Amino acid sequence: ESLHKLGDEAFADCSALQIINLPEQMEIGNGALRGCKALETTIIIGSTLVLVPASTTGEYIVPENVTTIAGGAFTNCDKITNIVFHDGIKELVPHTFIGCNGIERLDLPKTIERVADEAFVNCIGLRFVIVRGDTQVGDEAFSGCYNLSAIVHNK
Which residues contact 21 (CB under 8 A, 6 or more apart)? Predict the structure, then answer.
């Protein structure tokens, strides 16, 4: 038998977890690997970006084959300074970018239809957001982003 699903927060905050071997196709719950600081490999299952290592630095370009970003995928990636989204991403789910303190500016492409509740919680370095489409912004989507000074809607 094989593993078919990781439930919500299945391994959340398992900070010593260094290796996980998952099948290429499975269902991933919200925050399944959130806070697994010791994992050093980007994890993509199918077309879902599940985890970006907290040690990732500089600009992060979301791979073209990714259509979904799981909740918690970027938790505590505080050394990432910019995230480049491609046009295949439609939604940013809750808790995707918790504590990404190094991001100062976001440019959301027109294809992102929804920024969910609490998607960018406590991203204290975030100062400027450009929204390029008819994007719905959820409750507390930028909660705790104390330095956010401008959100520009630019079609």
Answer: none
What does the block give as tokens for 94?
């809750």
CA distance 122 to 97: 8
Give every CB contact of residue 1 below 8 A, 6+ residues apart in sequence.
none
Contact between 97 and 74 (Cβ < 8 Å): yes
Gap between the Cα atoms of 29 and 71, Å rounded: 8
**85: pLDDT strictly greater than 80:** yes
Q: What is the pTM of this model?
A: 0.86
| pLDDT at res. 1 | 57
Cα 145–chain centre separation: 15
CA pair distance 34, 10, nearest whole angstrom: 9
Average pLDDT in the 128-133 region? 92
